[in-house]
C-alpha cells in the first residue's frame, strides 16, 4: 500500500495534482491512500516552500506546480 500526501492549501493546482495522482495510480492498479495536507505548519514540516507538494511513502518527490502526467507515471513505475 502506497502512502501519498498532497501538500497544499486546497487551491486548484493542489486539487488537480491530487486528481492526476488518483487517476494514474488507479490506471496502474496501485493500492494507495491519498491524504491532503492543508495546514501550513504541517506543509512546512516537510521543508516545502511552494505548493503543491507530493510525498510518497514519507519522501518528498515534488514541490511547486502541477506535475506532468509522465512524471506521476514514473513514481508508480
Plain-language structure description:
- With 77 residues, this protein is α+β, with helices and mostly antiparallel strands.
- It has a single domain, classed as 3-Layer(aba) Sandwich (Glutaredoxin), CATH 3.40.30.10.
- The chain is 36% helix and 27% strand.
- It has three helices and four strands; from the N terminus they run βαβαββα.
- Strand 3 and strand 4 form a beta hairpin.
- It starts with a strand and ends with a helix.
Mean pLDDT: 96
Strand content: 25-35%
From the 3D structure, determine the CATH topology: Glutaredoxin
Q: Give the fraction of residues assigned to helices.
A: 25-40%
Alpha carbon gyration radius = 11 Å
> How many structural domains does the protein architecture include?
1
Quantity of strands, as a count? 4
Structural class: alpha+beta
- Main beta-sheet strand count, sense and barrel state: 4 strands, mixed
For the record, what is the CATH homologous superfamily label?
Glutaredoxin
* Head-to-tail CA distance between termini: 14 Å
Contiguous helical run count: 3
What is the CATH domain class?
Answer: Alpha Beta
SSE string, helices as H and strands as E: EHEHEEH
Strand sequence of the main sheet, in spatial order? 2-1-3-4
Amino acid at each position: 500500500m502506497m502512502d501519498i500526501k498532497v501538500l497544499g492549501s486546497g487551491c486548484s493546482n493542489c486539487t488537480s495534482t491530487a486528481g492526476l495522482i488518483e487517476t494514474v495510480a488507479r490506471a496502474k492498479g496501485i493500492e494507495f491512500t491519498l491524504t491532503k495536507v492543508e495546514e501550513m505548519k504541517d506543509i512546512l514540516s516537510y521543508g516545502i516552500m511552494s505548493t503543491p507538494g507530493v510525498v510518497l511513502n514519507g519522501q518528498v518527490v515534488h514541490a511547486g506546480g502541477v506535475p506532468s502526467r509522465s512524471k506521476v507515471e514514473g513514481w508508480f513505475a
